[in-house]
Amino acid sequence: MQQDLKPVRVFLEVARLQSFSAAAKSLQMTPASITRIVARLEENFGQQLLIRTTRQVSLTSTGALVAARYQPLVDAFDRVKLDLDREMQPYRGRLSVNAPMSLGLRLMPELVDSFKLAYPNIDLDIRLTDRLVDIVSEVCDLAIRVSSPPTDKSTIWRKLCEVPLTAVAAPSLFDRHPRPKTPDALDQNLCMSYGDSNEPEVWRFHKDGVKRAITTGTSVYSNSGDLLYRLACKGTGIAVLPEFHVSDGITNGDVEVVLPDWHLPPLWLSLYYPPYEALPPLVATFTDFFEAYLADERGFNFAK
Predict the structure, then answer these.
(1) What is the value of pTM for the model shown?
(2) Which of 30, 132, 249, 291 could form a disulfide with 254 if both were Cys (CB 3.0 to 4.6 A apart)?
(3) Is the pLDDT of residue 3 over 50?
(4) Which of these, 242, 270, 224, lies nearest to 128 by C-alpha position?
C-alpha cells in the first residue's frame, strides 16, 4: 500500500514545496526520479497536474483538485498506520478491557496498579459491566468473564479456571425460617435470582449422583452480584454467588453456606476476544500478566 501511494506522495510533496528539486531533497530521491514519477501520474490521470516553468512549479486546476482530494486520504492512511504500528508494539499503546462488576471491583484496582508499574506505556480503558458485552460491535480488545461455559462460536474464549458457586445466607435468616436440609426444602420466596432478565434462575444441586433443579422465586431479581450479596448479609434471602464473592463473608460470619453437603456446577473464569487470527501483542501482554497475577497474587487454581 505504501508503494501504491508513492506517486501520490511525490506529487503532493512537489505541490507543497512548488519545486521538483526541493521535493527530491525532502524525499531523499533524485530530481530525475521525481520528474519521472509525476509524469507517469499525469499520464495515468490523462491530465496535466503541474505547470513547470524555469522559475516555479504550480498546480493546474486539475492538479489542485487532485491534491485537495488526495491529501486528506493520505493523512488518514498515515494516522491509521501509526495507530496500527503502536498496537503492534507489545509494551506501548492503548488497550480496552471489559470486566464483570463484582470481580472488577475486587481484583482490578491492585491488578491495574501492578500492570501500570510493569508497563507504564500501555494505557488502559477499563469498563465494568455484568452483562455479556458484544465484544466486536463495542470495540473491546478483550473481556474478562465469570460465566457458564460459553456457547458463542463467533468469538475466542480462553478458559483460565473454574469458579465454584456457593449458596449463602445470613445466619439471622434462619432465626425466622427453617434451615433447609435438602434442595427440595428451599423456600422459593427466599431464593433471590441473579440475571439481566426477569426470568428466575435455576439452581442445579448435586450430591452423590443425586441431582435437584430448583427454580428461584420472584421476590428479588438483580443483575448485580454485589447487591444480592448485601441483601443476603441482611437476611433478606438466599443467593448463589461465586466463591470469591462470599469467601470473606463466610470466614467472618456475615453469611453461612446453605446446604453445605450439596454442590453446584462451577462457572468459568475466562478471557474472551474478538475473532483474532492471532492475539495482538498488546492483548497477549495483558493476557500473560493477568494469568500470572491471578496465580501468584490471588492463588487461583488454573488446573482445568
Answers:
(1) 0.64
(2) 249
(3) no
(4) 224
